[in-house]
Amino acid sequence: MLRYAGAAPNRIAALLFLLSHLLALTASLPSALGGSASPGDIFVTAEISANDWGIMQVDPVTGNRTIVSDNTHGAGASFTAPVGISITSTGALLVTDQGAPAVQPQPEGSFVQFPAVPTRVFLVDPTTGDRTVVSQDSLTATPPDPSYPAIGIGPPIGEPTVARQLGNVYLLPAEDGLLNNVRLMGINPQTGNRTLISGVGRGAGAFMTFPGGIAASGNTAIVADASKGLFAINLTTGDRAILSGAGQGAGAHFIGGWDVASSAGHLVVSGSTLNGDQSAFGIFEIDPLTGNRTVIADGTVGTGPWQQDVYTLAVESGGTILLVANGGTGFDGILTVDPATGNRAFLSDATHGGGASFMRVFDVAVAPLPGDANGDGIVNGQDFAQIASQWNRTGLFLVGDNNSDGIVNGQDMALVASNWLTVSANYAPAVSAPAVAVPEPSTFVLLLVTAQLSCALSMWRLRQSCAK
Ligand SMILES: [Ca+2]
Ligand SMILES: [Ca+2]
Predict the structure, then answer these.
(1) In this structure, which ligand is nearest to the CA of 39?
(2) Any bridge partners for residue 222, and if so which?
(3) Using CB atoms within 10 A as the burial measure, which of 202, 247, 358, 408 is most buried?
(4) How far is the CA of 336 from the centre of ligand 2 (A)?
(5) Rg of the Cα atoms in the chain
(6) Nearest-CA neighbor of 119 among 62, 169, 194, 17?
(7) Which of these, 83, 48, 41, 46, lies nearest to 357 by C-alpha position?
(8) What is the mean pLDDT of the chain?
(9) Distance from CA of residue 427 to its chain's centroid?
(10) Cα separation, 250 vs 15, whole angstroms
(11) In sequence order, which residues have a C-beta less than 8 Å from that of residue 51 and are 6 or more positions away?
(12) Ligand positioned closest to the Cα atom of 423
């Protein structure tokens, strides 16, 4: 068996992957994909005006707003109550819509609540605004309402929060409005079929109560729960454990989680410090292994606007936190939060940013920059070095695990190669000019070729010397 000492095999293996993909790219440079969000693009679900809910795009620098998809933008099935939004690996917008409940009288005189518009999961083209229903509940009307045929089979979508892609499945936390049966489901993107991953009847451990945001890495989903904190859910067994909350994890007081995102190897969480008291609210940095917490921002940490009813969040390249402020007149919009100081400023609201106006924002998503292993907003040699130094390491939310499959390997390096020198939309304002110039691509490729040839020669010699 061929063995190397020290870090050499990491760099060699990583170099070989990067080189092979870079050489392949010279034959077919990536063309602009229609209908794909660009890295750093910000999208929100919003109540745009009375009876018009939809998707808006927010410029990460100016805060200017444009309507992407609503009653008059984009084709396809109409939104009813789009709430959660995330971005798929192909740059489409993945949106959960809670439908419209209604109370219906029954023949015997009772009243039954059922959704007049079913709950749905949409894919939305960020360029055209066109909407495609991926998965849809049927209405519990008799006879069935032909205008809302079920799409996909399996457990009902119920009351979904935000769906998130992990590999080839969409993860969807939801509760059943009638049964209060909180569960985590997986959705097949091709068929819309839903399977129970964790909940009543599958997996051991405490049940979720009020699920919100979700992050995922490897074989684990982290679900924010407004009543219990953060759940860690094994995607194979369905087992649930409270990772951080009352009695779990040390550090800052933390009871309930509203939303969660991953950033540079840790979790960024919005949540409450007193059960049921949203005024006792903060942004926390939480260790995904221990559940230990520190406060990033709250009513006393950091300066700038702060008010209760701040809910969902996302993290930009460079670590800036985007926070949805949803606190009533004069406090609706998107805040930026400096992760180092906790300082806050409005990016987009009634008086910041121009363009289309909105009434309320519900959720925010930032298009990631694939291959940006160190999260600085540009894909370059530093990302190569980051991945090489972590080569074959396994774990949760690893820096360098670009595709979130729980291991740092050639697939992550391939994303570096295919996005070489791509920058995120917020790159310039968020990162100061590098002191050392980034080498031209051709120069870097030449260096890699030289290094790779050198490695190949030494490998050949080693093989020869080892061959019997
Ligand atoms: Ca980078
Ligand atoms: Ca990976």
Answers:
(1) 1
(2) 215, 232
(3) 408
(4) 29
(5) 23
(6) 194
(7) 48
(8) 84
(9) 19
(10) 40
(11) 71
(12) 1
Q: Cis before residue 82, ω within 30 degrees of 0? A: no
Give the distance (Å) from ligand 1 centre to CA of residue 439: 14
**pLDDT at residue 148, as a whole number:** 85
Distance, in Å, from the CA atom of 120 to the CA atom of 47, rounded to the nearest integer, reads: 17
Q: For residue range 148-162, what is the model confidence (pLDDT) as tens digits?
A: 888 999 999 988 999
Phi, psi (5° rounding) for residue 84? -85, 145
Ligand 1 centre to CA of 169 (Å) is: 27
Nearest ligand (C-alpha, residue 385)? 1
CA 315–ligand 2 middle distance (angstroms): 19
Would you state the pLDDT for residue 465? Answer: 33
Ligand nearest to the CA of 412: 2
Q: Which domains does the chain have, with CATH numbers?
A: 8-31+373-466 (no CATH), 42-102+111-366 (2.120.10.30)
CA 120/CA 223 separation, integer angstroms: 20
Tokens of 105: 């009288």
- What count of residues does the chain have? 468
Q: pTM for this structure?
A: 0.84
Residues 354/358/364/367 CA torsion (nearest 10 deg): -50
